[in-house]
Structures are given as structure tokens and as C-alpha cells.
Amino acid sequence: MAKPAARPVRGECTCGAVGIEFDYPAFWAWHDHSRATQRAQGAAYATYIGCWRSRMRFTKGSDLVARFEDAEKRTARSFCARCGTPLLYERGHSPQMVNLPRALFAARTGREPRYHVGLAEAAEWAYAGEKLRPLRGYPGVMWGHPKRRIADVPAEFAGPD
Fold first, then answer.
1. CB count in 10 Å sphere of residue 67
2. Average pLDDT over the chain, rounded to whole?
3. Computed over its alpha carbons, how large is the radius of gyration of the chain?
4. Quick check: pTM over 0.90?
5. 141-161, pLDDT tens digit by residue?
6. Phi first, then psi: what are they for 125, rounded to 5°?
7. DSSP code per residue over 24-68
8. Quick one: which of 16, 71, 110, 144 has the fewest CB in 10 Å?
9. Which of 93, 91, 85 is nearest to 66 (CA)?
10. In 126-161, which positions are buried (b, 16+ CB within 10 angstroms) versus exposed (e)?
């Protein structure tokens, strides 16, 4: 009996100029909290899916894929030269794998992110699950109401007496 054909999962960059796909399912998925990823993504952390390099391909705009290589860390990050969307994260110790930002794909990828990498470098300002409530007058905006009382404010922030 023939093996069924793999179903491709398609994604694209923000401007739509670069299309990318991989064969379902992804190999694994995780949240990366490392400082390098914070800088590369411009966010507190990024969620990646990993897949075999041989199962990933660009479907359009491969000439617009720019690449930054960090020789010291043996990593490479690729992004759309037109809009800047991160596309690939590659690590020298696993050249047969590529890591793709999960946000590129609207469809299911076959893996849920269950791992956290780089938690020691997690941003102290990132949302950590604290209770949120709707911000009155701004539909869809939630905020964390401060619980700190004036007496709890450190002296250097309290101002003159």
C-alpha cells in the first residue's frame, strides 16, 4: 500500500511576497524566551515549529529572503527583505532541521508548543498570566490593574515627603 502524500501547511510573510510551506505535521513546537530571539522577533518570546529541512520550501519570493548568520553562535535567521517578517531560524548543531515562526501559519501545524527554551533569559516585563480586566471605553483592550498601594512603593519612587 502506498504511503499517503503529506499535506502541505502554507504560510507567508506580512506583505505576502514570500510564501513558505512544510509537510504536515511539524516535528515539534516550543516557546523561545532567549534574549537573541527577543531581539530578532521584537517580542518577549517567539513560538517556533521545527521541521525537517527537506520538508520545507519557499513557494514564492525566495529571491526576497535575506539572511543573517551569527558565526559565533552558529545560528542563522532569515527574513523577508521587503517587510522584515522573520521566516527561518537555523542552528548549526542541527543542520537537518529548520525552525519556523508559528505565527506564519494560520492552519494547524500538527504540534502544540509544550516546551519553553531560555526561561532564564525571559523578559521581566512579559505577561505572566496575571488577572486582566476590560479597559472601559476601549473594546478588545484588557489591562492589569495595579495592586500596589502607596505604602508599597519603594522610597526612591515615592518622591519627596
1. 12
2. 91
3. 20
4. no
5. 999 877 666 565 566 655 554
6. -95, 0
7. SSPSEEEEE--HHHHHHHTSS-EEEEEEEGGGEEEEE-GGGEEEE
8. 71
9. 85
10. eeeeeeeeeeeeeeeeeeeeeeeeeeeeeeeeeeee
Contact 132, 120 (CB under 8 A): no
Write the Ramachandran bin of 72: left for phi over 0, alpha for psi from -120 to 50, otherwise beta.
Answer: alpha
Amino acid, single-letter form, for residue 4: P
For the segment 12-68, what is each residue's pLDDT rounded down to a tens digit?
A: 999 999 999 999 999 999 999 999 999 999 999 999 999 999 999 999 999 999 999
Residue with cell 514570500: 18
Integer CA distances (angstroms), 84 to 11, 42, 76, 78, in order: 15, 11, 15, 9
Paired sense of beta strands 28-32 and 19-23, if any: unpaired
Strands 28-32 and 115-117, how do they pair? Answer: parallel
Question: Cell numbers 519603594 label which residue?
Answer: 154
With H, G, I as helix, E, B as strand and everything else as coil, classify residue 8: strand
* 109-143 tens-digit pLDDT: 999 999 999 999 999 999 888 899 999 999 999 99
